[in-house]
Amino acid sequence: MIATGNLAVLGAQWGDEGKGKVVDLLSPAFAVVARSQGGHNAGHTVVVDGDEFILHLIPSGILHPGVTCVIGNGVVVDPAALFAEIDQLHARGLDTAGRLLVSSRAHVILPYHRDIEAAAEDRLGAQRIGTTSRGIGPSYEDKAGRCGVRIGDLADARPGGRLAALIEANVAERNRTVAGPALDWRAVLEDAAGVWPRLSPLVADTSRYLHDTLEARRPVLFEGAQGTMLDIDHGTYPYVTSSNATIGGVCTGLGVGPRALDGVLGIVKAYTTRVGEGPFPTELDEPLAERLREWGREYGASTGRPRRCGWFDAVGVRYAVRVNGMTALAMTKLDVLDNLDELRICTGYRRGGRVLIDPPATIGELAACEPVYETMPGWAGRGRTAGVTDERDLPAAARAYLARLEALGGAPVAIISTGSDRGETIVRPDSPIGRWLAACVPAGEHTR
Ligand code: IMP
């Protein structure tokens, strides 16, 4: 264990920034990796020696046998999805026994949540959110509505008990609002309670566990899901997910205080993507979007949907740095830009006669904004970044691009990812956070 403090890793765009790879890279230096929000809507891709793992619910730290993983109270858990993920890891030789904990306070996703979500998206028609259809939003709605089922509730399925009453009422509500065949609440109850024997060994008071871990000075990595622009408060509401993907979500979603956080690492892609509907100021037209999508394999890790692609949006990243207090950035997928002659960076949003330096609050205002671009030379034909592990080997234009993004983003870039494999990474030791992160990465992990 080498990390000398606790680190939060958060997305600074619309998710899919490459958090999985960065968390995987840093995990060996931490005792615990903890997830605080979201559910199996997330798709964290990790490539180990050419072998691809996609994790949705379980923190990416699980790929390292010495790391314990925590699914916190702020996460919404679909037990079937959790078991499928555990089974998949087992099938590939990774044992999770004894090192995966689920909060008894986490809310459960039940089949009626998916039905309610599908009906809501149908009703919205052209205004639909374009969700991942996993039941995430309705499960959080029940949580806020104080009628949600929590993991701990699954222990007691007695007739007339709390779980039975909750499910009976929630299914009745679902049957009132969703067209088609009605659900039988007794069957839902039986299925929900049926997961308990397998789930119960994992269930814990994870806030207490984290407290004890922190007291013992064992380092914790807090793994975010989605990204700042998908945050329910700070994102492009209503085209957002239903949880706080920003820094506050780490504390509320795990039951830890803010002083537990020694650093906040923001993950940014060297360009921008978004999956689902909603405003996206720097979105590219086809065919350039299509080329980026192909080079970057920009298809949703959870749903397979093609991601919308656009230029780097420094307005959004600067905002994410501010909202989360990010102390450093990790820049991913620089190599995807290797074939471009010219790059654009959005430095402001023009609205009427004014240039805004912050994203406006409403989607109407955001949709009326025109990105203000700065153009920089690309490095096509003048070197490549793919697989580079020493910054001095990057083409000069790539170094200039990074320096500009860093200046506009407002936080130092400590990690540069030049490919999907663990080894295809540059960890910069030239800043305090960079030195700290470099020390976190075991020798040999970031060099070929
Ligand atoms: P939900 O989280 O399934 O409710 O979807 C709400 C919005 O968040 C949709 O635009 C989704 O595409 C987006 N979203 C949710 N999770 C992720 C993610 O992990 N990466 C990128 N987009 C996501």
Topology, element by element:
Layout: E1 7-11, H1 19-26, E2 32-35, E3 44-48, E4 51-55, E5 68-71, E6 76-77, H2 79-91, E7 100-103, E8 107-108, H3 111-124, H4 136-144, H5 162-177, H6 185-194, H7 196-199, E9 203-204, H8 206-215, E10 220-223, H9 247-254, E11 263-269, E12 272-274, H10 288-295, E13 308-310, E14 312-313, H11 314-324, E15 328-332, E16 342-351, E17 354-356, H12 363-367, E18 370-377, H13 396-409, E19 413-417, E20 425-427, H14 432-440
Parallel strand pairs: 1-10, 1-11, 2-5, 2-10, 5-7, 6-8, 7-9, 11-15, 14-16, 15-19
Antiparallel strand pairs: 3-4, 12-13, 16-17, 16-18, 19-20
Helix pairs in contact: 3-4, 3-5, 5-6
The chain binds inosinic acid (IMP).
Explain what the structure shows.
The chain has 448 residues and is an alpha/beta fold. The chain has two domains: 329 residues, Adenylosuccinate Synthetase, Chain A, domain 1 (3-Layer(aba) Sandwich); 95 residues, Orthogonal Bundle (Adenylosuccinate Synthetase, subunit A, domain 2). The chain has 14 helices and 20 strands. The strands form five sheets. A ten-stranded mixed β-sheet has the order 9-7-5-2-10-1-11-15-19-20, sandwiched between helices. Strands 14, 16, 17 and 18 form a four-stranded mixed β-sheet that branches. A two-stranded antiparallel ribbon has the order 3-4. Helix 3 packs parallel to helix 5 and helix 5 crosses helix 6. The longest helix is centred in the middle third of the chain and has 16 residues. The protein is globular, with a radius of gyration of 22 Å. The two termini are 22 Å apart. Bound molecules: inosinic acid. The site of inosinic acid has 20 residues, from helix 4.
